[in-house]
Amino acid sequence: MQNLTPGRKIAYAMGGMAMNLTNLVISQLLFYRYIPDPDKGTVLIPATAIAAGTLFGILMTAGRLTDGITDPLVAFWSDQSQSKRGRRIPFVLWGLLPFCLVFFLLWTPPVESASWTNAVYVFIMIQLYFILYTIVVTPYLALLPELTGDLKERVNITTLQAVFVMVGTFIFGISGPLVAFGGWWVLGLTVAILSLISFLPTIFAIKENPAAIASVQKLSMWKWLLMTLQNKPFRFVIVSTSLYWFGLNLLLMVVPAWVESFLGLTKADMPLLMMPFLLVNVIFFFVFNTLSKKYGKYAMYLVTCFGSGIVVPLLYFVGSLPGSPLVWSAVILGLAGIPTAGFMMLPFAILSDAVDIDEERTGQRREGIFFGTQAIFQKSAIGFSVAFFPVVAQSAGQFTEMGLKMVAISAAAFFILAGISFLRYPIREVAGKATLVS
User: Fold this and answer.
1) pTM of the model
2) Predicted pLDDT at 438
3) Rounded to whole angstroms, how far apart are CA atoms 428 and 438?
4) What is the largest CA-CA distance in the chain?
5) Which domains does the chain have, with CATH numbers?
6) How many other C-beta atoms lie within 10 A of the C-beta of residue 291?
7) Residue 174: its pLDDT value, please?
8) What is the C-alpha to C-alpha distance for residues 118 and 111, in angstroms, rounded to an integer?
9) Considering just the CA atoms, what is the radius of gyration of the chain in Å?
């Protein structure tokens, strides 16, 4: 463990900005670079707009599959690394510049017209993007348990990290004006530079613990993964966080359709609902930070799950309540931002406690495989939620008021299930140490 000055904590936490910003831009905007509205731009993949959209979806899905495969591979590789600079920092160091370059190149296709060259190009670049994202982000996250064994300090670090995640979200909010000002390449270059700035402080300010490297036992990846899944607290973490992510992604997908199909507004009006949610999120990071130190992460995580399950179903009553549906929607999403703040900052700190318990059981620090395995389950949950959303929300291919409200109810059900599945989580904080209680 090292002396964690405020500067070092901020240096590490800054990575949260790029981690979130690049994901948002890729998932929300890359489609429109290659398959724009036919009235506003040229479709860059050969086919009709609908067929090209389907093809692009297949290309993105292939990238996500690669992402799922590389998560445990990179995690295992970094756990077993013997570099003089540590097990994690070299991955961030050597992966960062290629990651930023590939991100930029995604927005600069070779042909500005419909071409199979573009289809092959974006397929290759998407694969490289997800591989390099894993190479940088998984080892970066795996640094957290090693930075400090102080449970309160871990919450402080994840709180700062959550703040920078929100900074990434707010920067994403100006991506539209960036594209309007300079074009897609300006967006790609700006986010690439910000990503470089975001991760560089971790490379230069964080030093790894040599003792963690010396303790690593050489085993096969499958044995490494099996040992991870045998960790009882970890099983509770991956089940609960995956269920919560399923519900949260449903809620986030509801918002654009809610704005257009239910409130009768346009995409440009979406900040009217998202800003209350995000601003309340940021404010309550610090509330959850204080309460977690007083009552423990276990209790506050349950508040997060059950609180979300109680607030989100209130969307069902919008339209039947007196007053403006827009105002009620903004108020309810603002309230939903309160418990969601806990989810943005607590899971990584909770997972770090499970890593500590694993070290007591195995005598080894294996942070990478824990974060990599968790990513597989969480990304799968998000993927399934994307498939689940239109089945519930649409009728005859159109979003309906009742369909969107039922998605909100479904999201709440997954939040409640996340809380129920965590009730028997066996780690508590005793005298500032993660301790198994059953």
Assistant:
1) 0.88
2) 66
3) 10
4) 65
5) 1-216 (1.20.1250.20), 225-438 (1.20.1250.20)
6) 17
7) 85
8) 6
9) 22
pLDDT given at position 66: 85
* Pairing label, strands 394-395, 398-399: antiparallel
User: How far apart are alpha carbons 281 and 3 in whole angstroms?
Assistant: 29
For the chain (438 residues), the mean pLDDT of every run of 10, in chain order, is 80 96 87 68 62 73 82 88 85 96 95 82 92 95 89 93 93 85 92 97 86 63 82 95 95 89 84 91 95 94 98 96 94 96 95 90 85 89 85 82 95 98 93 81
Contact 25, 175 (CB under 8 A): yes
Cα(101)–Cα(192) distance, rounded to whole angstroms?
A: 7
DSSP string, 219-274: --HHHHHHHHHT-HHHHHHHHHHHHHHHHHHHHHHHHHHIIIIIS---GGGTHHHH
- Which residues sit opposite 394 in a β-bridge? 399
Find out whether 88 and 368 touch, Cβ atoms under 8 Å. yes
* Complete DSSP assignment for 357-375: HHHHHHSS--HHHHHHHHH
394 Ramachandran zone, left/alpha/beta (phi>0; psi -120 to 50): beta
Residue 122 near residue 106, CB atoms below 8 Å = yes
- Which bin fits 429, alpha (ψ -120 to 50), beta or left (φ > 0)? beta
The alpha carbon of 397 is separated from its chain's Cα centroid by a whole number of angstroms, namely: 29
What is the chain's length?
Answer: 438
Contact of 271 with 261, CB cutoff 8 Å:
no
d(CA 272, CA 278): 11
Cα–Cα distances in angstroms (integers) from residue 108 to residues 3, 125, 183, 255, in the given order: 43, 11, 10, 30
Residue whose pair of structure tokens reads 């970890």 in the numeric block: 234
CA geometry: angle 251, 254, 258, nearest 5 deg: 140
* Distance between CA atoms of residues 373 and 401, nearest Å: 37
